[in-house]
């Protein structure tokens, strides 16, 4: 344990924060910003940046809340238990449990993805993680109640809910199949 | 909206307090998780939101609902799946847009495919949250595993309507 920590410190515990993904996002933002500038002019560019930053001010506390919940729940739930219930050997029961969890997880992506990360750290396998995200995004009860029912009415909401209900398990099964391939498999310990 | 944020923050505080009270040893690793993840996101999230904001403007939003009508069948379902992938923004933006398609005459199976595609692929969410938090491997596996779901949901919805004979009220 101490050996591992020492090794991590030696290899530079302070990693540079500007990583590849961030640079890709910078490039996309600049390219798309230039395209909007050329098409709609500088006013629209400034306006869009302003509303993006306003969105950030609204989202940042929620991301923080999601991280705090994820961080502490991760400590509450014993790792071995998650690994057993949602791990690679958990079979259909693990996928069904992950679906059930996704179904009842409230809130937006700023809450659910930190939780997905926490489940991953705790030992859930790719199939369970994908089943969880798919269930949360497709048949999450919270969103159906808050948006779908009022906007589109009970008939269409019910039809979509029923047609989508089997899909998270299907996605989880496919993800388990794809995730075995060494070229794409998730590292077991998150970097 | 503000009430929702406050409720979420209270829930986070409650989780931290209860966990810290019952298991004092968990506070340090939990705090480290929050600081490590939070500092990684501190730069990524603003950049990603600005990028997503510009991309949302560039995606054409006005699409003819007639090409998504119930009589368009599988072709309409596939087109709706494609349109759904590029609907920008969260539910507050998407559901008003979806309502426009629905009232303009899009068919129920096509609407199911469109909403499923948006739910599964939501480009904005993918850019702003999934890639920065989960990385490209997870995202790639999830996308591959989900690529057929919107059309499948549309076909299932169409089959359900045909088999049961129910009419979907607009």
Please outline what is shown here.
Chain A contains nine helices and no strands. Chain A has 191 residues and is mainly α.
List keywords for this structure.
heterodimer; A: 191 residues; mainly alpha; 9 helices; 0% strand; globular; disordered N terminus; B: 170 residues; 2 domains; 7 helices; 78% helix; elongated
Description of the structure:
- The complex is a heterodimer of chains A (191) and B (170).
- Chain A is mainly alpha-helical.
- Chain A has a domain at 67-179.
- Chain A has helices at 2-10, 20-40, 42-76, 79-86, 91-104, 109-122, 126-139, 141-164, 167-179.
- Chain A is globular and about 55 Å long.
- Chain B has two domains: 1-50; 59-170, no CATH class.
- Chain B is built from seven helices and no strands.
- Chain B is elongated and about 60 Å long.
- Classes of the chains: A mainly alpha (191), B mainly alpha (170).
- The interface between A and B is large, with 88 and 87 residues.
User: Could you tell me the radius of gyration of chain A in angstroms?
Assistant: 20 Å
Alpha plus pi helix count of chain B:
7
Helix content of chain B: over 70%
Global structural class of chain B: mainly alpha
What number of structural domains do the residues of chain B give? 2
Quantity of strands of chain A, as a count: 0
Mind describing the biggest β-sheet of chain B?
Answer: none
Unreliable stretches of chain B (pLDDT < 50, length at least 5) are none
What class do helices, strands and sheet pairing of chain A give? Answer: mainly alpha
Report the order of strands and helices of chain A.
HHHHHHHHH
Can you summarize the main beta sheet of chain A?
Answer: none
Shape of chain A: globular
The tally of strands of chain B reads 0
- Subunit organisation of the chains: heterodimer
């Amino acid at each position: 344990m101490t050996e591992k920590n020492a090794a991590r410190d030696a290899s530079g515990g302070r990693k540079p924060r500007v990583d590849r993904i961030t640079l890709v996002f910078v490039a996309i933002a600049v390219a798309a910003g230039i395209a909007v500038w050329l098409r709609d002019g500088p006013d629209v560019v400034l306006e869009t940046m302003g509303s993006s930053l306003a969105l950030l001010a609204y989202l940042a506390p929620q991301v923080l809340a999601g991280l705090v919940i994820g961080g502490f729940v991760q400590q509450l739930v014993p790792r071995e238990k998650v690994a057993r219930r949602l791990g690679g050997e958990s079979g259909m029961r693990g996928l069904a449990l992950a679906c059930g969890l996704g179904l009842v997880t409230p809130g937006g992506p700023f809450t659910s993805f930190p939780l997905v990360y926490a489940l991953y750290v705790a030992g859930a396998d790719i199939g369970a993680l994908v089943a969880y995200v798919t269930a949360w995004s497709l048949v999450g009860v919270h969103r159906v109640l808050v948006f779908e029912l009022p906007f589109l009415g009970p008939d269409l909401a019910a039809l979509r809910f029923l047609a989508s209900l089997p899909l998270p398990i299907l996605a989880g099964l496919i993800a388990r199949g794809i995730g075995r391939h060494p070229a794409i498999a998730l590292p077991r310990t998150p970097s | 909206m503000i009430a929702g944020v406050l409720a979420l923050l209270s829930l986070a505080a409650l989780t931290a307090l209860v966990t810290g009270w019952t298991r004092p040893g968990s506070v340090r690793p939990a705090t480290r998780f929050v600081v490590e993840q939070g500092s990684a996101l501190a730069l990524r999230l603003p950049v990603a939101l600005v990028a997503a904001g510009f991309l949302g403007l560039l995606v054409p939003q006005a699409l003819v609902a007639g090409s998504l009508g119930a009589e368009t069948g599988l072709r309409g379902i596939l087109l709706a799946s494609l349109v759904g992938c590029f609907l920008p923004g969260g539910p507050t933006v998407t559901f008003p847009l979806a309502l426009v398609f629905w009232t303009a005459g899009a068919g129920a199976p096509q609407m199911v495919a469109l909403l499923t595609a948006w739910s599964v692929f939501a480009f904005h969410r993918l850019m702003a949250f999934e890639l920065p938090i989960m990385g490209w491997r997870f995202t790639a596996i999830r996308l591959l595993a989900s690529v057929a779901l919107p059309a499948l949901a549309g076909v299932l919805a169409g089959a359900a309507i045909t088999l049961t004979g129910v009419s979907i009220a607009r």
